[in-house]
Design a protein that fits this description.
The chain is an alpha/beta fold. It has a single domain, classed as Alpha/Beta hydrolase fold, catalytic domain (Rossmann fold, 3-Layer(aba) Sandwich), CATH 3.40.50.1820. 23% of the residues lie in helices and 23% in strands. It contains five helices and eight strands. The chain has helices at 44-52, 81-92, 106-111, 157-164, 186-197; strands at residues 2-4, 10-16, 26-31, 58-63, 99-104, 119-125, 144-149, 170-175. Strands 1-2-4-3-5-6-7-8 form an eight-stranded mixed sheet, with helices on both faces. Helix 1 crosses helix 5 (186-197).
Length: 206
């Protein structure tokens, strides 16, 4: 399918509908890692979430950021990419009262800079927070879950804790024994995301 952003960019996307024999819990927008380093909507982490979350009762939409994959436009360092996330929310909103935005790596930073009122909360997987990271969701009272690999090359758990300590409603979950790319832990991360979206709060390490 194709989404059109508010600034007229056509975005390639896929939708996976909730499994029919389960109550529909809401919708999830998935945001992929950095497109200049090979990230797109078929990234293994994003793909696993896309395939697994419908079984938990969620409609799931993944898309290619502008300039990536089959999407039009040009990469904009996460600025105009926020409009891509907003277009995905616009598509899901008529069918869901409960919409979560889940981002991996670069996608998590873009996701947390979209504080659209229809969003219930955010899940950030391996967020590469920089020293001057100031995401808009940081001071928003809606829930944020940060799943942080123990050996993340770009921003390990102690640094994430330091750089997000002033954020509101934020819980950090350590993903032990793995790095930023989550080798061997992708399925476990997808399972924890499903549990969080189902409303079972937990800060236990993975």
């Amino acid at each position: 399918m194709t989404l059109t952003t508010i600034d007229g960019v056509n975005i390639e996307a896929d939708i996976a509908t909730a499994v029919v024999d389960r109550p529909i819990r809401g919708g999830v927008v998935l945001a992929h890692p950095h497109p200049l380093y090979g990230g797109d909507r078929f990234n293994p982490v994003v793909d696993t979430l896309f395939r697994e979350l419908p079984a938990s009762g969620f409609h799931v939409l993944r898309f290619d950021f502008r300039g990536a994959g089959g999407s039009a436009g040009r990469h904009d360092e996460g600025v105009c990419e926020r409009l891509d996330v907003a277009a995905a929310i616009d598509f899901l909103a008529p069918f869901n009262d409960d919409i979560w935005v889940v981002g991996y790596s670069f996608g998590s930073i873009v996701a947390m800079n979209v504080v659209e009122p229809r969003v219930s909360g955010w899940i950030a997987i391996a967020p590469p927070l920089t020293e001057d990271s100031s995401v808009l969701a940081g001071h928003d009272p809606r829930p944020k879950w940060l799943l942080v690999p123990e050996h993340d090359q770009f921003c390990p758990a102690p640094r994430v804790r330091e750089r997000s300590r002033a954020w509101l409603s934020t819980t950090i979950i350590d993903v032990v024994g793995t790095d930023h790319f989550l080798p061997g832990r992708v399925n476990a991360v997808a399972e924890r995301v499903a549990v969080l979206l189902e409303g079972f709060s937990s800060s236990e390490p993975l």
